Amino acid sequence: MQKGIFENVAVIILAAGLGTRMKSGKAKVLHEILGRPMILYVVETAKKIVGKNVILVIGNQAEKVREIVSENFPLSAESDEADGNDEVGFALQKEQLGTGHAVSYALPNVPGHIEDVVILCGDVPLITADTLIRLIDDHVVGKRDISLLAVQVDDPKGYGRILMDENMHISKIVEEADATEAQKKIKTINAGIYCVKKTFLTDALQKIKSDNAQGEFYLTDIIGIGHKEGRCIGVMIGSTPDEVIGINTPHDLMAVETVMRSGKIS
Ligand code: UD1
Ligand code: MG
After folding, report:
1. How far apart are CA 133 and CA 6, in angstroms?
2. What is the pLDDT of residues 133-179, one digit of tens each?
3. Domains parsed from the chain with CATH numbers
4. Are 62 and 122 in contact (CB under 8 A)?
5. Separation CA 102–CA 163 (nearest Å)
6. Ligand 1, atom nearest to 193 Cα
7. Which member of 21, 36, 66, 134 is catalytic?
8. 220: Cβ–Cβ under 8 A, 6 or more apart, which residues?
9. Which of 60, 91, 116, 227 has its CA 20 to 30 A from that of 24?
């Protein structure tokens, strides 16, 4: 499986975090869902849409993650082994200073011809290729700088909230830890899945700072930067919130297993 549907799109998957909230010694993305490490679901979906142009950011238990992914996605017969090309590319983020910091480690590995970059989280394993295809199509047709996937949920706790300006344009994402009480009531949340023009992403990542409650370089800050610069930003509201459950705790892991068993998402 060499070619994906989109030749000018690459996917970056963030998978370097330890996942402190899982309260386990195992890197979060290696936790299993129905007997299979969660990262494999995400890589499989990414490969369906962009083929070889997948870059995984690894850090915690990096060699273990690399081994498991490489074993499951071995070089296919058509690969040019002389180039030493893996089926999946890896970027090492030695210190985990935030999701924005993680993406900046992957960017140098994105091939030159790529125009748009999809960013996925290794801990959001139920995302489907269909939804990603719709997000990318929307992004390309709308000639946007950033398109992000959001969903409306009853319990937004733990997720980044989407803020709108007076013209109902998305202006910022605020993380739970930085949110005011009023912002915490917002039920439109960031799924952690984006399609971003590569040139804008490269530029915006140089501008993010770590002056927030967690002292991290948040990827979500590129939205506020884009809004200030008058960039074209769009939100796609996903119709199936279950698809974007982020696994941060053992409880989330159980919730995802329940959804997968139900066969509602495949
Ligand atoms: C993130 C988003 C939040 C969104 C949620 C969706 C940010 C700042 N917040 O929050 O708005 O609602 O996802 O699930 O982006 N990672 C790295 N390197 C790092 C830090 C994280 O690779 O330095 C990876 C983690 O392994 C994980 C992913 O990035 O797979 C997301 O990190 P996590 O800490 O789970 O972010 P959330 O708090 O869930
Ligand atoms: Mg998470």
Report:
1. 9
2. 999 999 999 999 999 999 999 999 999 999 999 998 999 999 999 99
3. 9-262 (3.90.550.10)
4. no
5. 24
6. 6
7. 21
8. 99, 100, 160, 173, 175, 190
9. 91
Cβ of 156 closer than 6 Å to ligand 1, yes or no, is: no
The residue behind tokens 């002056």 is: 211
Q: Which ligand is nearest to the CA of 120?
A: 1
Q: Which residues contact 240 (CB under 8 A, 6 or more apart)?
A: 131, 151, 264, 265
According to the model, what pLDDT value does residue 78 have?
A: 61
In this prediction the pTM is 0.96
Radius of gyration for the chain, computed over Cα atoms and rounded to the nearest angstrom: 17
Kindly list the distances between the CA atom of residue 179 and the CA atoms of 121, 158, 224, in Å, as whole numbers in the listed order.
21, 10, 14
